[in-house]
Amino acid sequence: MPRFDLYQEEYHPSPLQNVWIEFKRSHLAVVGLIFIVIFLLITIFVPILAPYNPDLQNTNTLLLPPAWEANGTISHLFGTDALGRDVFSRLLYGARVTFGSSLTIVFVAVLMGVGVGAIAGLLSGVRSSIVNHLFDSIMSIPTLLIAIVVVAIMGTGLYNTMFAITLALIPQFIHQTRSFVKAELSKNYVLLDKLDGASSVRIFFTSIIPSMFELIVVQATIALSIAILDISALGFLSLGAQNPRIELGQILSQSLETAYVAPWLIALPGLFIFMMVLAVNIVGEGLRSALRNRFNH
Amino acid sequence: MKIPSHFNVQAPFFLLQVNHSAMKFIGLLKHACFATQTNSKLCVLLLSITALLSLSACSDVEQSSKRAITYCSESNPAFFNPQLDTSSTTADASAHQLYDRLLEFNPINGRIEPGLASSWLVSDDGLTYTFQLRRKVAFHHTKYFKPTRTFNADDVVFSINRWRVASHPYHKVNGGSYPYFESLGLQQTIKDVKRINGYRIEITLYKSDSSFLANLATDFAVILSGEYAAQLLNEGKPSRIDFFPIGTGPFKFSHFKQNHYIRYIRHADYFLPTEGTQHLIFDITPKSSLRMAKLITGECDAVAFPSQSDLGVITERDDLTLLEKPGLNIGFWAFNTSKAPLDDPNVRRALVLAVDKTTLLDAVYLGQATRAKGLVPSASWAYQGDAKELGYNPVKARELLDEAGIPYNFSLDVWAMPVQRAYNPNAMKMAQLIKSYLNEVGVTLNIVSYDWNIFRENLRLGIHDSVLIGWNADNGDPDNFYRPLLTCDAIPSGTNRAMWCNKQYDSLIQSALLIDDFEQRKQIYKKANALLFEQMPLMPIAHAYQYQAIRNNVKGMEINPFGGIRFDNVERVP
Amino acid sequence: MIKLFIRYINLMVLTIFALLVLSFILPFLFPGDLLTNISGITPETAEQRKVLEQAFMLNENIFAQFQMYIENLLSGNWGVSSSSQISLFEEISSAFPATLELVFYALLVATFVGIPVGFLAGLRHHNLADFSVVTFSIVGYSFPVFWLALVFITLFCLQLEWLPISGRIDLLFEIEHVTGFIFIDIFLSGLEESKAAFKDAVRHAILPTLSISIVTTALFVRFTRRSIMDVMEKGYIVAAKSRGFTQWQIFRKHSFKNALVPILPILALQISTLFTNAMIVETIFSWPGIGNWLIQAIYQQDYPAIRAGMLVVALFVLTLTITIEFITRAIDTTKDETARAAV
């Protein structure tokens, strides 16, 4: 025996645990996960974490550079903006809105997309094929276009843009779910359930959903990165979060005014968005690798 | 993979004219690539990218034969005729480029000089003005209009009667609203405009008006082409007169692409000798940071309304010049006095007491403006240095609000301009500062903004609660501040943002016009100031310096303190 | 094959119809006066209102209105923009080609740089070059495209002063609008300064194209690499190897085509992202394309413009996507409907 085992049982990790083991092997992916957890913590705990009130204007300290520059002070880690508001606090609050709203968007999109897709998959026939292709086509309308139409109808604002992006993301979940369900329905283990006399709905909930889980998670990470990019883009275009709500893209567009005097005001919000998306993408890549390779050892 | 020896990497580069630094960089890369034979593919990639980028080094634009000035403006003009609009965007695009006036202001000393009128006489009773018109002044010759005659009295009659006479066939064309003239009540002041002969005009007034000549020299009193108007009326397209303009000015209209650019071409037969550029282009760029960026890269030779934070950058750079002049302007916070509870002067005074003007001056104007106590700045002869002003007293503010019955968390709107002006370079920022002050006395402020043309249209309709805006003088006469901003007549034309109508104030302003003596007029304006202090329909904030940012190789540019920008003598020296 | 063709034609017709219905309904949903939303003209008198109502058959039933709408669309009478009063057809026909240009250039770069790099990385994977390629691609498609554009501007235009910031071409060059594609128009304009104009247009196009294409190239690299890695593990490749084919021969004969096919539909999906990114970048670089125009329209509350613009872009993207899908399905020999490349 290569190792002394107190317990004689063999330990077979479940498929899910296998994913985690494989995932852990990539250090990069774990770092990405840590970042996501940090952003999650920011989103939940920002009122405690932020050193200043993000709306507090202090006209004695306008456009202070970040702490690592010669003129900066440590009390304002990332400096202040043109109204004297602490940039670090604003970025934290903005990150909360960006990350939080993206999570909400993906959550809703997953619920609705998987629901509708499942129904579409369980049904069969020409109807569902048409519906499938229709959704395929809607999927290819540029997100910005959908957002523009929604904003034109409903006005600007964070919730309206969230609605628009959710609309844009739902079709791909519907599509994936439907294809998956259709494929699974013809597989043997489902056939066994049917032979046992299970109804379609029961089959769905007990057999198909567990297998679908990983696919959905992977899809969700892709959707999350898209949602973050889209929400901040719409905020940048002044179509999304409006004053007094703070959002990272919106901070970026406001910083353009003082672009020469305060270049850090452009670099930092963008960096935050970039890190958010990068973390999500790294974790997504890691998950995908893990799912592919989990049985390889 | 080695680069085949017959592939001469050197050849393409000699075809390009590269500048020094790019050349050096490419040289370095080439050495590095040939020295190490590995990763040659990467080298070729890098070299070709650098080659592409070094295409940039040739500025063939300067070598091209066209001479042109590019001006970064900040918004679309609503019309190409300043009669219809008081916005400085419209005035900048048309007033001094496309048109001339009967009289002109000397931009240096403010005196009234001959324009299209070569001389004039005023009768003793001040009711009759006779103008002798200049001969051999040619109108623009364009693709859509070929003039058959030169400028004469008929054009003056047409230009004035269009806005004066309600029954004139062109009066209602494109809206029928002539805000500047309406705000001054000139339609009621002028009795008649008569053509004495081909080159002589007589204008009679109902009552004497010491600011009448000054008003004829403003940006808005342009002279249009009567012949063109008749032609358009025949063709059934009268509205084109304000969109495809014809005038006598130094430039003629070539093309307008909304949200993008306006093109002008030099009018070869302009009646004054000028040494200026052949082509003028307005590059419409709403974002001030982008205008600044274009000034730095040289895509624009001059920019409109450099923002306060950019002024430091301009003075630091040696390829840019900052022109500066004390401005004839005022930035203010106007309350819509027609809406309750803002109709109560105590409420308005309370709101003013709640805000510290010093902070606004420091944070928004960054020290480049003087504190405004009244409407008129120190550059004008009617300035009252000892005028009273409300200070900063939030406790008293809350008291007044309580007395007036205003509850806590009372909310009101402030409309902040989306564009920069000298009198308010950053209305959004100011609004946010005011918001935090009002918060402390229990008033919630909602900040509202729209696209600039929609903004002004909605303001005219009086939907706002209060607005952060200002006024740039059109001539040196103080009446130009008092009348269009706060008299009853100015409400329908939209220049009276406070929607304030006070008979006592109106009669004071009227009486000042009947007097020629500056000292006496000054006394009357002092009384008006006292009334304004009591009633506080608006809070005067600042008189700003006027700035113009240009590239060093632009010659002939001057700041016009009376409004519209002028390009007739401007050219770019390579 | 014919059956496939008919199915896709059906699909195209169906989706176009759905879009037209949506576009027809929009003016009813937009705030403000219905008549202004449809025509772009604000009626000033009751007379004018009646005339306009007649023209758009607002007093008839909904089907007649829809028919009128389709007729108007086909005849080029798209109404006018409510803020500029210029015919929408004219505005869109000058704005849309500008966006197409940008998308086309970015697609070129992404295809000719991204796919080869992806192939190379996939063929020799798990070494240093492959690792750097993977890193570059993840970093690349995580960039918010507007931030990338701003960083480029700060670096190349303001610090180094190499490239211009805005527009398609220096305004000094008056290029006649013939096709809307600037390089063709320069060629057709016959100005003596054509060469200078050409160089100038290239300079203006570099940064916007770079900003968009980095994201798309990164995605192409990732998909291609994954696809070829999957193909390399297939049985027939191993068989070919065991028979003694070289890497390059296998690639030419088998891997290339087989790797390309499953990723084509995904590449087709990227077109919509490409359009979104192009439209965002346009506003930063003041590129006179349809994205810039639509966003201005939203700020100015120009509803007829939004409606027409949306219809044009959506129709184009949809048609393109469906066509590519059809071509993919037609040349795909596996005939497996539900198989999509695992990513």
Task: Offer a few descriptive terms.
heterotrimer; A: 297 residues; mainly alpha; 0% strand; flat; C: 343 residues; 13 helices; disordered C terminus
Structure description:
The complex is a heterotrimer of chains A (297), B (574) and C (343). Chain A has 297 residues and is mainly α. Chain A has 10 helices and no strands. In chain A, helix 3 runs parallel beside helix 10 and helix 8 packs parallel to helix 9. Chain B is an alpha+beta fold. In chain B, the strands form 4 sheets. In chain B, strands 1, 8, 9, 10, 11, 12, 13, 14, 15, 16, 17 and 18 form a 12-stranded mixed beta sheet that branches. A 4-stranded antiparallel beta sheet of chain B has the order 4-5-7-6. The N terminus of chain B is likely disordered. By secondary structure, chain C is mostly helical. Chain C has 13 helices and no strands. In chain C, helix 9 crosses helix 11. Chain C is globular. The two termini of chain C are 28 Å apart. Chains in contact: A-B, A-C, B-C.
Question: How many strand elements of chain C?
Answer: 0
Terminal CA distance of chain C = 28 Å
How far do the termini of chain B sit from each other?
48 Å
Poorly predicted regions of chain C:
337-343
Total strands of chain B: 20
| Unreliable segments of 5+ consecutive residues of chain B | 1-22, 53-65
How would a textbook summarize the main sheet of chain C? none
Helix content of chain C: over 70%
Shape of chain C: globular
What portion of residues of chain B belong to β-strands?
Answer: 15-25%
The tally of helices of chain C reads 13
- SSE class of chain C: mainly alpha
Shape of chain B: globular
Please state the structural category of chain B: alpha+beta
Oligomeric state, counting identical vs distinct chains: heterotrimer
State which percent range the strand residues of chain C make up: under 5%
- CA radius of gyration of chain B is 28 Å
The biggest beta sheet of chain B, please? 12 strands, mixed
- Rg of chain C, alpha carbons: 24 Å
